[in-house]
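User: Predict the structure for this protein chain, please.
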Amino acid sequence: MNARKLLIVGAALAAALSGASASAAPPNPILYLTSQEYYSAGGKNWVRHRYDVFNKDQYPADMFAAAPSLPPCGLNTNSSRSWVDFFDGRTGKRLYGFCALGSPQNLGQIWFATEEGTIPPSYVYIEITDRQTNTKYKSNLADTSM
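Assistant: Here is the predicted structure, written as structure tokens:
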């Protein structure tokens, strides 16, 4: 991670930890780009922008447990209690989402893809939506380029 990204993560971490208590709700996620992966699918070339959530260990496992009592995600009737969505940092347009992450550790393997040759948004953010409590946790803006 370069110095600029360390500063961004450090500032976001400081903001997330300020005023936190042992019984406090989970903090907002601290999102950062880890890599870009080139691949082909459906006859097209793509770039997968991979991210991690720096403070994923501060989320309880039960937030990501299967929740069959909540509405399904498509045909998945055991989707997780919390869903994670990527958004364009400028327009707020939803880019991609995950509805079956099984644990907070899976927040270290989230991504969205753009077609190769397409300029991605400059920045993205995620929202973790706890569907059981109807609570949203919005991340910082994270770069889309290495």
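Strands lie at 31-41, 44-53, 82-88, 94-98, 110-115, 123-130, 135-138, 142-143.
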